Amino acid sequence: MKQTPKEKIKFLKEVLGTRYPEPRSELLFESPFQLLIATILAAQATDRQVNIITRELFRAAPDAKSLSLLEPESILKLVRSINYCNNKAKNIRSVSIILTEQYAGKVPETREELEKLPGVGRKTANVVLAAAFHQPVMPVDTHVHRVSNRLGLCHTSKVEETEAALIAIIPEPWVVDFHHYLLLHGRYTCKAKKPDCPTCPLATICPSTGKTTS
DNA sequence: AACTCGGGGCA
DNA sequence: TGCCCAGAGTT
């Protein structure tokens, strides 16, 4: 069963949406600022953790200025239950101050500016650019990278090349959801060490099925 | 390239 | 219980 990358994407869209929970896009799109903060907090954390924390956090401080005015201890208390809470509390406070003082409280719309913010790397920047500003960029983490290569959507060890390959074949409105679903798929099924091919809904189109590759 | 941060999820 | 990270920053 040979399929073009675009045909595979269409198949993924149909199948993965029924296997994994839907992304909480209504929260993510409340404002670019809240998306940015939630994405910073999301590193090495779960959706559930982030949803719980951000609900409280954004009730206390819905925008950059109000977050910048909170005491550091108050912010730490709000994010204490998440991993790397000390770093993240410090980072989101610094980010809110920088945005307030240098960007009139708004989120910059270039990757160069975003990556200068503490706690924001390439992946987080791309999430914001794609989800909040609808720019044609693809967020790629270790899961998306690994799964994409196994599926034959790309053949590279370089994240930048995976980004380029994916953005070329994924319909723009589905980029953010694609990232969400492939991340979950990589986490729970297409695992790094023991991929669960027997229960994988993509096995029929996946050239790596049955191969215990890396 | 290797190491750190560090609570949670999962086997 | 123990292992492995939904990254980013530092060395």
From TrEMBL:
Q: Is Iron-sulfur one of the keywords?
A: yes
A molecular function (GO) term: DNA N-glycosylase activity
Q: How is the cofactor bound?
A: Binds 1 [4Fe-4S] cluster.
Class in the EC hierarchy, top level: lyase
Question: What InterPro entries does UniProt report for this protein, alphabetically?
Answer: DNA_glycosylase, HhH-GPD_domain, HhH_base_excis_C, HhH_motif, Hlx-hairpin-Hlx_DNA-bd_motif, Nth
Domain HhH-GPD: start-end pairs: 41-188
Which cofactors does it use?
[4Fe-4S] cluster
Q: Which GO terms describe its biological process?
A: base-excision repair, AP site formation
Keyword tags: 4Fe-4S, DNA damage, DNA repair, DNA-binding, Endonuclease, Glycosidase, Hydrolase, Iron, Iron-sulfur, Lyase, Metal-binding, Nuclease
What is the reaction catalyzed?
A: 2'-deoxyribonucleotide-(2'-deoxyribose 5'-phosphate)-2'-deoxyribonucleotide-DNA = a 3'-end 2'-deoxyribonucleotide-(2,3-dehydro-2,3-deoxyribose 5'-phosphate)-DNA + a 5'-end 5'-phospho-2'-deoxyribonucleoside-DNA + H(+)
- Enumerate the Gene3D superfamilies for this protein: Helix-hairpin-Helix base-excision DNA repair enzymes (C-terminal), Hypothetical protein, domain 2
Binding-site residues, [4Fe-4S] cluster? 190, 197, 200, 206
Q: What is its EC number?
A: 4.2.99.18
Q: Which CDD domains match?
A: ENDO3c (cd00056)
Question: Where in the numbering of this chain does the Helix-hairpin-helix DNA-binding motif class domain appear?
Answer: 112-131
Q: What does this protein do?
A: DNA repair enzyme that has both DNA N-glycosylase activity and AP-lyase activity. The DNA N-glycosylase activity releases various damaged pyrimidines from DNA by cleaving the N-glycosidic bond, leaving an AP (apurinic/apyrimidinic) site. The AP-lyase activity cleaves the phosphodiester bond 3' to the AP site by a beta-elimination, leaving a 3'-terminal unsaturated sugar and a product with a terminal 5'-phosphate.
Which family would the database say this protein is a member of?
Answer: Belongs to the Nth/MutY family.
This protein's name: Endonuclease III
Specify the species. Answer: Chlorobium phaeovibrioides
Corresponding gene? nth
